[in-house]
Design goal:
single chain; mainly beta; elongated; ten-stranded antiparallel beta sheet
């Protein structure tokens, strides 16, 4: 900006043509208006951390509120393990269930007779998930499935395949997330499993 440009006259050879001096127009400021960051916060102000809404909890709650009767239990007294594998994350300390390491594609089986009250991928954390209602206000949760083998409203029997293990949701290795809920509250699954 501000530099003088010499342009030869039209039709003349560049060496013989008289040069006309043209001053470049003075640049005008950019018309774009930018926002202000405002006044900096005072050190005495306390800011609360952003906590995203727990969508997963509302999906589970809606499924548990569904008024579908569960079929009678087998009478064995304890639930069966949904898969056989190594427990890599125990109940408690922020976990509402247990994580069991298994190869991807391992059949996931119903822990007890029940009715499917949810089968889908609406729980971001657990990905493909199945919820089964049982007698006595119990609900079992099976997360991180690679595929679902049942549908909502379907009655299942103890030991019936309901899903295949996988890596859906927020996980970096194949596993099954398993929860037992009593009247909507998570409880330690080991007290219910044989």
């Amino acid at each position: 900006p501000g530099q003088t440009v010499r342009v030869p006259a039209a039709g003349a050879a560049p060496a013989q043509a008289p040069a006309t001096a043209v001053a470049a127009a003075k640049p005008s400021p950019d018309p774009v208006v930018t926002g202000s960051t405002g006044q900096p916060k005072k050190a005495t102000e306390t800011l609360t951390a952003y906590a995203p809404p727990k969508k997963d909890a509302s999906v589970i709650q809606q499924a548990e509120d569904d008024d579908v009767a569960a079929p009678g239990a087998t009478g064995i007294g304890k639930m069966r393990w949904p898969v056989r594998g190594r427990v890599i994350s125990a109940f408690g300390k922020g976990s509402d269930g247990v994580d069991i390491a298994v190869p991807e594609g391992t059949p996931v089986k119903a822990a007890e007779n029940g009715v499917v009250i949810y089968a889908g991928d609406g729980l971001k954390e657990f990905g493909n998930t199945v919820l089964v209602r049982h007698e006595d206000g119990l609900v079992t949760v099976y997360g991180h499935a690679s595929s679902l083998e049942v549908q909502r409203g379907q009655k299942v029997k103890r030991g019936q395949e309901i899903a295949r293990s996988g890596m859906s949701g927020t996980t970096d290795s194949p596993k099954l997330h398993f929860e037992v809920r009593k009247n909507s509250a998570p409880v330690n699954p080991s007290t219910y499993l044989e």
